[in-house]
Every structure is written in structure tokens, then in C-alpha cells.
Design goal:
Layout: H1 2-7, H2 10-16, H3 21-35, E1 40-43, E2 46-49, H4 51-79, E3 83-89, H5 98-108, E4 112-118, H6 125-128, E5 134-138, H7 139-142, E6 148-163, E7 183-186, H8 192-205, E8 208-211, H9 215-223, E9 228-232, E10 242-246, E11 252-260, H10 266-280
Parallel strand pairs: 3-4, 3-5, 7-8, 7-9
Antiparallel strand pairs: 1-2, 5-11, 6-9, 6-10, 6-11
Amino acid sequence: MLELAKVLNFNRAAENLFLSQPTLTYQIKSIEDEIGFEIFQRSGRGAVLTPAGRQFCVNLFNLRAEYKRAVEQGQNFSNRYQSGLTIGLPMRSAIYFLPQAIETFESKNSGVLVTPEFIPLGSCEKFLRGEQDILFAREQDMSSVPDIKIHHLFDSRIYLITERDDPLASKSKITADDLKGRVLMVGGGSQPELRAVQKRVIAQTNIEHFNSNDRESTLTNIAAHKGVCLAPGFLNDHNGEFAWTPFDCEEKISCVLCTHSGDRRSTVADFISILKKIYAAHPAFNS
């Protein structure tokens, strides 16, 4: 069925599956009878997905991808590992020292696999369902969530993002007055601390500003010379494409690791300890 959904031609799908065309047609009709709705509309030119069929196949494609991932994870465990830790985070750079921590941890715990899972910033559903053992988050987002333990990791300060050849990039620190005459992008899911800084800058300088929907749109607009942006340091991917210059403000965003309150495994405590020690050894990294 999924092969037919890709090629939308019974003959071609049957050939790809090494089936006869009548056999494939019978199988599709049997599935449609079982689930109670039509997946494909037949035509002289091939097949067309019905609206219900399109949604049904999208879900099946996703399930197949999850199944493949589950098999691969199972193979990893059967080959080398006896247990694992899963960490939810929005991007690798959010926990900048994560690769170093994984290497250190797995050298001491050779039978434990550490798996990063990348999720939207602020999303905690998988963690709360018990599908993740550790979650990177902003402390304010998790402070009222029950049955979790919060481990402070670092305080992320606010930076101005500009193009690398922007005159502001040569400064050691940016003030609100430096932004006069510029266009400031705001919005895009800004954290409360960041929104406070944005509002203060706009009020003090009467700077022109506009809403940018998300991080990727904002970076694209910066590269297109449409404006500059304030952002927390934990979003810096450190690829050198843009300049990140500290902004003169007191606000910082407390970044934490969350674990389940009932999870008393020594491996979880060990991994948290390793990360905290690495960040403690680099106090100027995010402060």
C-alpha cells in the first residue's frame, strides 16, 4: 500500500513489490474493506489518494520510520549496550559540552548508550511520558511541573546576533543606544526574560521592529540585511556564520536539566554530575 502511495500506479507498484497487479489490487481492496474507507480512487491513468487515504498513509509512513528507528536502537543495544539514557534537547549546541560529556560518561560506563533526541524548544511531552530520561529546559518552564528533579546547568546571557561584517560585531558589548537606527526582530517564541529586554530597548530607543516567526526565519532575515536580533546564548550553534555579541543587560535565562523524581539510577546521577563539572570548569562560557 505504501509503495502504491508513492508511485500512484498499480502496475508499477506491483512490479516494485514483485506481485501481480490483480494480487495487489485485491490486497488494497481487502485493506479498504477492513478499515472502512477508501484509500485510493482508481482511474485510467493510475491511482489517486483520497483525503482520508492521504492522511492514513502519512501516519503509516511515520510509523514505519519509528519502527525502523526502534529496530536500529535494538540492534545497537544487542550488539554493545545493556542499558541507555535518552536526552531531549532542542539542538546540540544547547548543551554545548554534550559530546565531551557523552565521551567521558561512556568511557566509564561502557555498557550504557547515551542517545540525544532533538525536540522543539519548550517541548516536554515525551519526557513527561517517560520516553526521555533527561530533558534540557529553561527553569521557568519546568519550575511548576510535578514529580521531576531540576538540576541547574548554567545561566545563559542575552546576545545580539548580526552579520559578521556588521560594525556592531567589532564591539565587546552592545548597548541599547548602539541599536538606534537599526531594525530589531522580535517574537518567534521569545522567553520572558528576552521579551523584557526587547520591550525595554524598544521603549528607550524607539527602534523600528518587526515580528519574526521562528529562529530560522530570523537568521535568514539577518543574512538578508533586514535587521538584527537579540537571543539567548544557548541558541548559538557556534558555526561562525553570524556574530554573537554580548548585550548590556542584567537578564539571564536559567538553563537546567530535568530528571524524573523517582529515577534513582546511578548512571543518571553520574551523567548529570559529569555535565555540571564540565560547565563549572568553563564559567565564562555562558555567563
